[in-house]
Amino acid sequence: MFETLRNAWKIEDLRKKLIYTMLILLVVRIGSAIPVPFIDPSFLKLMVSGGGLLGYLDMLTGGAFSNATLFALSISPYITASIVIQLLTVAIPALERMAKEGPEGQERLKKITRYTTVALAVLQAAAYYTMFRNTSGAVAYTTGAFGALAAVTIISAFTAGAMLVVWLGERIDEKGIGNGISLILFAGIVSRVPASIGDMIWNMIQQGGIMWLWGPLIGIVFLAEVAFIVLMNNAERRIPVQYAKRVVGRKMYGGQSSFMPIKVNMSGVLPVIFASTFLAIPGTIGGFLNLDPIAHPYWTAFFNMFSYRSLLYAVLYFLLIIGFNYFYIAIQYNPIEMANNLRKNNGAIPGIRPGKPTSDFITKVIAKITLVGALMLAAIAILPILIAAMTGINVALGGTSVIILVGVALDTVRSLESQMMMRHYKGFLE
Q1: Which of 97, 138, 139, 387 would be a feasible disulfide site paired with 43, CB 3.0-4.6 Å?
Q2: Structure pTM?
Q3: What's the structural domain count of the chain?
Q4: Residue 102, by phi and psi: left (phi above 0), alpha (psi -120 to 50) or beta?
Q5: What are phi and psi of 236, to 5 degrees?
Q6: What is the pLDDT of residues 119-160, one digit of tens each?
């Protein structure tokens, strides 16, 4: 691995790409430290400490949200916009045709995604400003001309910061190594690791006693979790495919055997993000309302049911990850189209007739593989919740964070691997 890095650094164009990527990530971290005027971060840290959607957002932004900085929204509007456009592509025929038009259609979809990101960023920024304004002392000015100036400044700064992050991510895609948006997300989560580990250790010191025995065990579980995620991301079900021989002129084509790879974890981390966001909504609403437990005991009990450590949260989290996994696979993979492509290329699955029997077979295989992948993903996601419930220790890196970190790291390694293979160097994976 280190030899590969040395070889990559010796190549001028790869060295420039690596340096460019690191400089962009440095700019992102600098922007995450520039405060937005008129906001007191201490109130935001109290809100984030309660978990929920705000805590999840703070995790994705690398602490930028709790510090009320320029990049407080980070890439969350872009992620939401991408998911919305992806879903609409299946539902709206015009967008579906656009997606099949090749590079030109993909570029038009990117523009639509950017415009959607701007709209969502404005709405999100306005919603957070309203929340800050309703919190006494969070915003310096709430009325009069200075109040209007504070509102415009905060909303504009959050929106501009979100779009700047998206622009920086696209620059990495063009001139750097790996996926820009994923790397920005990766850098944000990594930046929170030292503080999270410090908080966990301090919690163990305060509790003392047997809690020190849990530390090494949690470390072992974490390493096993990382290894399991790597295995899950690389695992695939290979469906054998046999191509028929055909004669074109004096040459014979086909006749070779191949396979159709179906990954165990086809949806990646998206079901986890969907489920986390969905379950965080009730708790966040409860935090916004700030109900008095004595005056509203039933509503308080209802919102407490969706706390991070509750049994109901863990069960719903597990089931929603499985459900969203099947939903995502259903809209992303079309077995009928896959069967038709095989027929067009004179390919067939041994023992399966072309046409509908092939599509039915692929459907069954995808359903089984999706179930295995969904169960594995859900188990990894709820593991930190179970550890926190048993030990009382907040695990530094949750299941979502670890899945994102490992997934992005593997994708970046594969990107550099392909660059090295083009230059006949040994890669990481050899």
Answers
A1: 138
A2: 0.78
A3: 2
A4: left
A5: -155, 155
A6: 989 988 888 888 788 776 778 887 888 889 989 999 999 999
